[in-house]
Amino acid sequence: MMSNRVTMHQNDSVMLQKDTLPMQVLSKLMDWIMDGTLKMGEKLNTEEIARQLGVSRMPIREALSGLEKMGLAESAPYVGMRLVSLTQEDVLQIYQMRQALEPLVAERSCKNITKEDIEELEKIHEEYIRIVKEPELDAKMLYLQNRKFHFAIYSISGMDRVCAVIESLWDTLSFFKLIYGRDVVKNNGGADKMIAEHYSYIEALKNGEARLLQQRLHDNLALRIEGISKDSDYYAL
């Protein structure tokens, strides 16, 4: 049964529009993950969530399916749906795989990229900056826009099979990255660093510097790996 810790805020009870119910439920579940209401490994009880949000079980089931596709939840025998539980070693291995694959596809993208691709990437980056500069930053939007930025680059490579593997790695890391994104929101220096990283990728793509782009991605992921290796309390709320 879902923990009694889940307590609705006043605005949670606002009537949800029927045509977007599953997406709104999914959004609320992601909010609960980021604010610590829901923890890693916690069971997701359809009836309890439906009661909390004042909706039927059908949109809850669709939202839970969405969580599963994003790598945030998993179906366990005799338990039902629950949030994933990642160890520090799990996260390290996934980042190491990303470090091996993402620079590879980025280098190919740099060779394939067009002026139109650059313009689209700059628009995505501008939206990322807008989100970061909001008075009250939204960690969820930050995470989703960062993901959109990276895959806008990787998709240009034409290496669809490798990109599918990378996407599955991002899905598996979604829980961790949502928590990380929340911490970036709290740390203005972290947000500025992410903006600078994105800008450096765009500049390398503009100048056709494939090896430089490859190296920058490799090095930035190396810093993530180093930080996770040293942090013994990386999921602390």
Helices and strands, in order, run as HHHEEHHHHHHH
What sort of overall outline do the alpha carbons produce when their principal axes are compared?
globular
The major beta sheet can be summarized as:
2 strands, antiparallel
The percent range for strand residues is under 5%
Structure description:
This protein has 237 residues and is mainly alpha-helical. The chain has two domains: 10-83, Arc Repressor Mutant, subunit A (Orthogonal Bundle); 88-230, GntR ligand-binding domain-like (Four Helix Bundle (Hemerythrin (Met), subunit A), Up-down Bundle), CATH 1.20.120. It contains ten helices and two strands. Mean pLDDT is 84; it is low at 1-8 and 10-16.
List the helices and strands and how they pair.
Layout lengths: L20 H14 L11 H8 L3 H13 L3 E4 L3 E4 L4 H25 L2 H19 L5 H16 L5 H13 L1 H13 L1 H19 L3 H21 L7
Antiparallel strand pairs: 1-2
Helix pairs in contact: 1-3, 2-3, 4-7, 4-10, 5-6, 5-9, 6-8, 8-9, 9-10
Could you give a quick summary of the protein structure above?
This protein has 237 residues and is mainly alpha-helical. The chain has helices spanning 21-34, 46-53, 57-69, 88-112, 115-133, 139-154, 160-172, 174-186, 188-206, 210-230, and strands at 73-76, 80-83.
